[in-house]
Each structure stands twice: as C-alpha cells, then as structure tokens.
Amino acid sequence: MAEVAAARRTRITPEREAELYEAVLDLLREVGYDTLTMDAVAARTRSSKATLYRQWGGKAELVVKAIRHGKPGPVDAIDTGSLRGDLHALVMREDDCVMEQNSALMRGVAMAIHQNDDLRQAFREQLIEPETAEFQRVLQRAVARGEIRPDCPALDFLVHMLIGGLATRALIDDQPPTQAFLTSYIDAVVLPALGVPTT
C-alpha cells in the first residue's frame, strides 16, 4: 500500500512541481494563508484537488514545501572560509526585490502560524529545524577555524538574531530588509555578539 502511494506521489515531474510551488507562493502573496484554498490552487495550476491532497496531504504541507522550494539552497552549502564571508554571501543570494517579496510573504505566514497548529508543525519540521541545523554547521565550522569560542553564549542565538533583523526592519523602520541593511546588521550586531571581528 505504501509503495502504491509512493508511486503515485512520484508522477509529478520536478518542472511541474516547481510550477505548482510558484503558483502557491503567488496565491499566498495575493490572498494570505487563511484565505488560500486547495480549490484555488487546483484552479490556478489546472490540477485536480485529489492530486494535490494525494501529493501533499493538505494545505499546510503544500505551503511549507512551496516556501522551502523557493529558498535559494542550503545555508551550509556556503563556505567562503570565514563566518563573516558566509553570512554576507547568504544575504547576497537574494536581491533586494526578492527579499522584499519574501519578507512580506513570511510576515503573512508568521501571523497564520500562531493560529494554525498544522501549519506551525509543518513549518517547524520542514523549515525551522532543518535551517537551524544548517546554521549550526556553519557555526561549527567557524568554531573549528578558531573564529568563535566554543563556549560563546551567543552560539545558540544566531538564527534568532538573523530573524530579528529581518522582522524588525519593517516594524521599526517601515522599510523592507535590503542587502545593505542586513550586511550592516551582521557586522554591527551578529558578529560582535559572537566575538568575531568585522574586518
């Protein structure tokens, strides 16, 4: 039975899957998580609702996988030889326009996470936990290179600091995050907290 289900799930080509994910992200930007329906996704993508449920199980799973698919790649794939270089390279993977779109999208999803247990669980399992593990590997490389003391208390808060910079830019400054803002924030806040030189 599990083999039959797995076989059914593999029928969607990677190209088709990418189209579906892009359509989901477009709908999220247009109507938000709460208003987004599987019917709307099916209509937008010319898919059957049954196919969507068979492939993804439900809206939360589909939305989180679409967000994950839209990310530019694993954080720990970046290895410039220094933590500062890694974090700056991470910021440079998305231009300011894409960063503004994604920031608005994530603000809308963040609101929905507080009210939807299934979305919160999928988000934690498929985005937060894997990305936190990726950042931990980046930090462990920096520790191994001698850039950060292994007992640095800020090691456990890198992801918190980065998300804080992204989230508060719109809240405090009424501006989207930009490459210039985030690289300055990394140099002024994140690296000093970790005891890493910024030059």
Automatic annotation (TrEMBL):
DNA bind region: 37-56
Coiled coil: none
Residue ranges annotated for the HTH tetR-type domain, each copy included: 14-74
Organism of this sequence: Streptomyces chiangmaiensis
Matching Pfam families: TetR_C_11, TetR_N
Annotated keywords: DNA-binding, Transcription, Transcription regulation
Name the record gives this protein: TetR/AcrR family transcriptional regulator
